Fold each of these.
Amino acid sequence: MLNMLMEPIATLTSREAQVLNLVAQGSSAKEVALILDMAPRTVEKHLDHIRLKMRAKNRAHMVAKAIASGLLPNI
């Protein structure tokens, strides 16, 4: 378990980081799409890429790993 916490987190693009930050604050994919002026499906694809890069099981796990790794220091 400790080994999994120590895994390096993949580098996110600036857009992926924006999407992750908004989702971590509680925004839905549709809300993120409106805020960032993109299609909801594009937001979903960004979330899929982030989840895969971070080796997270789901969105909650993705946000938890991001907080633990310091990617979301303002949360």
Amino acid sequence: MRRILLRPMCAALAALGAMACGGNKGAQTDAVSDTVSRRYVGTLPAADGPGIVYDLTLVNPAEDSLAGDFRLSMTYLEAENGQDAKFDSEGRWTALRGIPGDSSAVFFQLVETGVRPDTTAFLDLGDSVVLLGAGLQRAQSGLNYTLTLTE
């Protein structure tokens, strides 16, 4: 009975892993440790300035992994007296399935390490990710919240 239940579960996890990894475009493999990293970059809207430059790197322990570590750098353009302000965070990410209105959508949930861990979610579109808001909702403003996978 276990074997019958495990085979479909393994197949489903393998399929989710392939979608979460978005193929090989932009993925870099470390030959020594077999880790894979993907980097997404983009300038997102800011309430009080010209924008926030996001630089997100997802690191997988293996190509088909559904979780790993992340590094996120956010640079608020002209934030303090005309000077940019940069904030860095890191933590763990997990690929999950299902957002409101799309039960098959894959998104990355990022949880920062630290005293007050913050959680952020990005919808995986393969060659890009889109920042999700509260309740895993896409922005209704029409503004661009997309980070693009770099080569």
Amino acid sequence: MPLKGINAIIDFFASAGFGTLDIEQQKETSQKWSLTGDIVETRLFDQDTPDFYLEAGFLAQQIEQQIDASAEAEVEFDKNKINFNVLTADSAKDLME
């Protein structure tokens, strides 16, 4: 069952201990998100090959269910944060607030 809107996704990431999720940009067929926080920095600096595919997949799945269109998340590593670029195959309706 999908979460209800952007705020629910953000709240879930915090309560699951994934880090602080923020939406930075939203367009018709893409969204740009960032994931920050102590846990993210620890994983980036303490692991040789940190992996954020669980978080990316969860985010893409939630967006896919909310907009009823295929979605895929790309992971980008930044200095002390992770960026997720979520791309949708179809024109996406706005996520519910």
